[in-house]
Amino acid sequence: MASIARIAPLLVLLLAQGCATPPRSLYADLGGRDGVDAIALELLSRTSDDSRIAHHFRNANIVRLHEKLVELICVEAGGPCVYSGASMAEAHAGRGLTEADFNALVENLIDAMESLDVPRRAQFRLLERLAAMHGEVLAPPRPRQARDDAASPPQDPTAAHRSGR
Ligand code: HEM
Fold this sequence. Notes:
0% strand; binds protoporphyrin IX containing FE; heme binding; transport; heme
């Protein structure tokens, strides 16, 4: 009992300190608005020079893409932003993106963050958030028509003829 009484003030002090200094947000670790802006810019610059995936962005509106990327990363990192772009499924539907495309983009993002000296822990945390979007980016829901066609495969027009009916 005596020992608890001795450490109690220390515990109170530690708790008070913990409350006074909230953990830094990922947004802060990425460098806030300027940091996120620079990461998105560097990612797009590396991607447009990357012959593996640059063709996907041939007709892209890069100014808008940069703006939406900044918003998205900011929100994912817990920053004070609102994402106003298309959902990941909508934005990537019908683009035929592959696992290799996704990996190439992630590689460019890592290189971008390395070149900007983003702390490794913050890099991992952001990558973790973006990896969760993998399914939406690569496997957008199929259009209704394709789903209906798969549910009822087309009839063989020669079947009736062959069966003699
Ligand atoms: C986690 C991974 C990804 C994220 C977070 C992401 C994020 C975004 C965002 C925020 C937009 C803008 C949506 C809008 O305009 O409303 C977008 C569009 C687009 N993304 Fe991605 N993307 C990812 C993966 C990829 C990959 C792997 C590719 C191709 C290699 C790709 C190609 C495109 C293209 C071509 C557009 C449309 C640009 C335009 O038409 O202006 N994205 N993406």
